[in-house]
């Protein structure tokens, strides 16, 4: 029997399991999760995250495992919904839910997909409180070593999928004393913060921090109606928040777009294939020229309002009006536009074109040379990220409420930061300015990592640089392609800058499963119930 190990028990692992339900031959799958239960993944785990933290993905956008999120919620009884902080009338395919609700959904979906696999005759073992410590490639398979509650253990597998997800290991940024910065997790710790609180970043995680600190000292009101307000409890002055971001901008409010996204006419996957096939030099500029044609056709007003002479010029002119306007007034106007778009289900053409374009770029980026990659990261990537990382409307309303209550400001800081601690204060120095805080939370989100940062020492020693073409397979001396696949998104981030998010988790899981299925011998599966399957044999230790 083929033995498969999946390391990590979050959404990517669940989508991998879903893909493996297509196996035509019985397989044995072992899933390792270091936490006490598998399923929710890091951003959706109760305890790590506060119930006030919202997901930025609506039910209709969450790729299916066995059913939609809204269908799952409708199947829950009223008592359970109450515990999740929901009432039945708010459940629909367009709503945004607290992230812990998605955690409960993925936990249930894991149980569902495991039941399906077992029903099909496969063996599935879920090992919780099992932290994988090393991956050791060998001629006859791959040895996984893990730490269980009792002791170190090991077993051998034919295929290994690394789905370890988010990693907040210490980063060594020059000039930054990381010990002076607080982690946004677990959320519980944020509730104790008071005084002048700095938040590095202004996107989803930074909003989470602001809302969690604010909720600990007061309450948002009017969230069911048009206007959200915020008031502290009691009469004291417990906290003031300052978000700090490179551009000094807030994220945009989630805007309506049709699903599936309409194809572009010029900048298409086929056109990109042609570009790559003909000549790799100047790839970014040649791809950009195609995108420009689409922007001119689809949204002439937008095209006329920006500088389309180069990716860099577009980036500068795209953000310029926002950077020169009052950011809170811009946020108010943007929220009105986004609400109107959702109500009328009308999409803004340039937004949809850029959203589609970022998906086409995903296939192109791995072909960029280092110079194009660097240019892309500094020019188009911020535009695309701004588009797809828009946030739920209640999150923008809460930020506006905090600002109106005199509790929140946002300042622009440069990219090179000086972080230090002096006289009990955390000092952030940037472009000659010094900002002093009682505490600073680093909410800049997941940063790229190297494979070696995952801490699997034997694997790091065996892997050859570069990836197998068209997938997530690592190149390892003496092992077949597809034996070890790395879906750990921090490691993929530099070459796949849009890899975060549930849509990508699903794509990665499906692709990894496909690579394993391609290696399986293919006699037809015995029909479940007619033939008893042997329990999974552990290979030689
Ligand atoms: C704060 C935050 C909010 C987000 N919100 C959204 C959102 O609203 N919508 C969206 O689409 N995306 C969101 N994302 C993006 C997120 O990347 C994905 O949605 C998703 O979590 C990726 O799933 P994953 O399984 O790859 O990783 P994770 O969710 O990180 O899961 C990995 C799992 O592996 C386990 N693990 C790690 N190392 C080991 C080990 N050595 N041994 C055993 N187990 C291990 C971890 O405990 C964890 O359970 C958010 C990300 C963050 C950080």
TrEMBL record:
Signal peptide: none
Membrane spanning residue stretches: none
InterPro entries in the cross-refs: FAD/NAD-bd_sf (IPR036188), HpyO/CreE_NAD-binding (IPR038732), L-asp_N-monooxygenase_NS-form (IPR052189)
Pfam families assigned: NAD_binding_9
Domain annotation FAD-dependent urate hydroxylase HpyO/Asp monooxygenase CreE-like FAD/NAD(P)-binding: ranges: 5-166
Name by which UniProt lists this protein: Putative NAD(P)/FAD-binding protein YdhS
């Amino acid at each position: 029997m083929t033995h498969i190990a999946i390391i990590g028990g979050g959404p990517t692992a669940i989508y991998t399991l879903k893909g493996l339900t297509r196996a035509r031959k019985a397989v044995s799958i072992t899933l390792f999760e270091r936490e006490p239960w598998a399923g929710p993944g890091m951003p959706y785990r109760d305890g790590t995250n506060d119930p006030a933290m919202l997901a930025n993905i609506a039910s209709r956008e969450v790729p299916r495992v066995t059913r939609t999120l809204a269908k799952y919620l409708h199947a829950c009884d009223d008592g359970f919904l109450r515990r999740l902080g929901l009432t039945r009338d708010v459940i629909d395919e367009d709503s945004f839910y607290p992230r812990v609700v998605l955690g409960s959904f993925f936990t249930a979906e894991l149980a569902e997909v495991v039941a399906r696999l077992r029903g099909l005759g496969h063996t599935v073992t879920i090992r919780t409180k099992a932290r994988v410590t090393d991956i050791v490639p060998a001629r006859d398979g791959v040895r996984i070593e893990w730490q269980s509650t009792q002791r170190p253990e090991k077993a051998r597998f034919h295929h290994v999928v690394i789905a370890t997800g988010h990693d907040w290991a210490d980063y060594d940024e020059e000039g930054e004393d990381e010990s002076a910065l607080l982690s946004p997790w677990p959320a519980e710790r944020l509730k104790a913060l008071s005084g002048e609180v700095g938040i590095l970043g202004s996107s989803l995680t930074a909003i989470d921090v602001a809302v969690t600190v604010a909720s600990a000292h007061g309450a948002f009101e009017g969230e069911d109606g048009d206007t959200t307000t915020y008031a502290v409890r009691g009469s004291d002055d417990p906290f003031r928040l300052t978000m700090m971001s490179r551009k000094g901008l807030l994220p945009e409010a989630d805007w309506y777009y049709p699903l599936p996204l309409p194809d572009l006419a010029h900048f298409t996957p086929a056109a990109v294939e042609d570009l790559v096939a003909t000549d790799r030099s100047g790839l970014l500029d040649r791809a950009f020229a195609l995108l420009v044609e689409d922007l001119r056709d689809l949204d002439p007003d937008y095209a006329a309002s920006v500088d389309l002479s180069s990716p860099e010029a577009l980036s500068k002119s795209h953000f310029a009006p926002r950077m020169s306007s009052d950011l809170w007034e811009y946020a108010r106007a943007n929220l009105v536009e986004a609400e109107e778009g959702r109500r009328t289900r009308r999409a803004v053409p340039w937004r949809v074109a850029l959203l589609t374009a970022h998906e086409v770029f995903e296939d192109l980026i791995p072909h960029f040379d280092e110079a194009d990659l660097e240019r892309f990261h500094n020019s188009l990537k911020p535009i695309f990220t701004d588009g797809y990382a828009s946030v739920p409307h209640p999150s923008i309303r809460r930020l506006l409420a905090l600002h109106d209550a005199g509790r929140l400001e946002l300042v622009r800081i440069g990219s090179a930061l000086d972080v230090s601690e002096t006289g009990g204060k955390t000092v952030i120095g940037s472009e000659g300015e010094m900002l002093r805080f009682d505490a600073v939370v680093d909410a800049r989100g997941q940063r790229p990592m190297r494979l070696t940062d995952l801490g699997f020492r034997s694997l790091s020693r065996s892997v050859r640089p570069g990836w197998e073409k068209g997938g997530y397979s690592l190149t390892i001396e003496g092992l077949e392609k597809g034996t070890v696949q790395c879906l750990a998104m921090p490691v993929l981030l530099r070459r796949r800058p849009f890899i975060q998010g549930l849509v990508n988790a699903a794509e990665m899981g499906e692709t990894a499963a496909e690579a394993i299925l391609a290696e399986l011998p293919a006699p037809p599966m015995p029909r479940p119930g007619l033939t008893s399957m042997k329990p999974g044999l552990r290979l030689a230790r």
